[in-house]
Amino acid sequence: MFSGIVETTAKVLALEKEGSNLNITMSCPFAGELGVDQSVAHNGVCLTVTSHTDSSYTVTAIKETLDRSNLGVLKVGDEVNIERCIIMNGRLDGHIVQGHVDTTGECVSKTWADGSWVFTFKYAVTPELALKGYVTVEKGSVAVNGTSLTVCNSQKDQFSVCIIPYTYDHTNFHNIEVGTKVNLEFDIIGKYLSRMMEFKND
Known about the structure:
The chain is mainly beta. The chain is built from four helices and twelve strands, in the order E-E-E-E-E-H-E-E-E-H-E-E-E-H-E-H. It folds into two domains: 8-84, Elongation Factor Tu (Ef-tu), domain 3 (Beta Barrel); 103-197, Elongation Factor Tu (Ef-tu), domain 3, CATH 2.40.30.
């Protein structure tokens, strides 16, 4: 379980295909503190540490993860937002993020609003996906590349978020441009409510 408060970014050092899986080796400041089997969110995708050194660690993404997220298009040198799992006796500063990416979206607009960056993301939506809760609501929560954000200007198939300079500088949002593919995880509470509505008239 995660909060969507990105701790830092990791740099991709190596990518190794193993069958349909992808082994990703990254460097980050707390690599030496990690342990094998520990969960870390990568652009919002929960992956398990399989090995580590004092300066780097490796995780494995399976085909389902690569198909559903932007990890399959990573290149050596790319920056990835990372967050270790939350400590249950701490404060939940963001919102409940599972690390299970629902789909990807595409940046269609990036504008400076005299103090913050406004990003607009478009994603595919169908009535079936909407019934699963794969939608946004005004002032609701969404995780973009694992970053907990508040939705503004929610539309049928797109939404905007405002990024303050601190978040812009300390996450990989500074690398996002029009056309960039991002990972989206919609609010788990909304997904549960959507699921329960299916049984309303049963």
